[in-house]
Design a protein that fits this description.
4-stranded parallel β-sheet; PLP-binding_barrel
Length: 195
């Protein structure tokens, strides 16, 4: 019998394919990052066994704890905010306004030899009321960055879209969607013990 996470993953993959086809894009050019925050490694393994290879976490410690227990060919994505005391374990950036995206991309490309600029990411509206304009803004940023860096737009990833708005994001050009609760269910946080 197929697990709930596997059935949900298959449903997400179907919806990704349909959204890509609606926008005239090839579905295999959209990466699904299954965000497994607060979920056990066993659920990640189920999704892995069903064919998914990209997983995301919001906390450094989650990757540090889970990665050694899972297959080495998993492509891990860190999608959370990074505290400076964790930077040696993992690198990240919390973001900039759209008007500063070219400046940041140039800085990474020209002054950070140990980093590779590979794309842009945004998070839609918190209540999933994103409109095409929300995603169009990042798409426009990509065009500006690519022109400034003299790189083809196909070389610059667009990571936008989550459980509630990923189909719209794909239709607007997303190459990475971050799907958590739709695949793995709602987050589970440990209950705090009373003092």
């Amino acid at each position: 019998m197929e697990g709930v996470a596997v059935a949900a993953l298959r449903s997400v993959m179907l919806r990704v394919r349909q959204a890509a086809e609606r926008s005239g894009r090839r579905p295999e050019l959209v990466r699904v990052v299954a965000v497994s925050k607060t979920k056990p490694g066993s659920l990640i393994r189920e999704a892995y066994d069903a064919g998914n290879r990209c997983f995301g976490e919001n906390y450094v410690q989650e990757i540090v704890d889970k990665a050694p227990q899972l297959p080495e060919d998993i492509e891990w994505h860190f999608i959370g905010h990074l505290q400076s005391n964790k930077a040696k374990t993992l690198l990240s950036k919390s973001g900039v306004e759209p008007s500063n995206c070219v400046e940041l991309a140039k800085h990474v490309k020209l002054r950070c030899p140990n980093l590779e600029f590979s794309g842009l990411m945004t998070i839609g509206m918190p209540n999933y009321t994103s409109t095409p304009e929300n995603f169009r803004t990042l798409s426009n940023c990509r065009a500006e960055v690519c022109q400034a860096l003299r790189m083809a737009e196909e070389q610059c990833e667009l990571s936008m879209g989550m459980s509630g708005d990923f189909e719209q994001a794909i239709e607007m050009g997303s190459t990475n969607v971050r799907i958590g609760s739709t695949i793995f269910g709602p987050r589970e946080y440990p209950k705090k013990q009373p003092n």
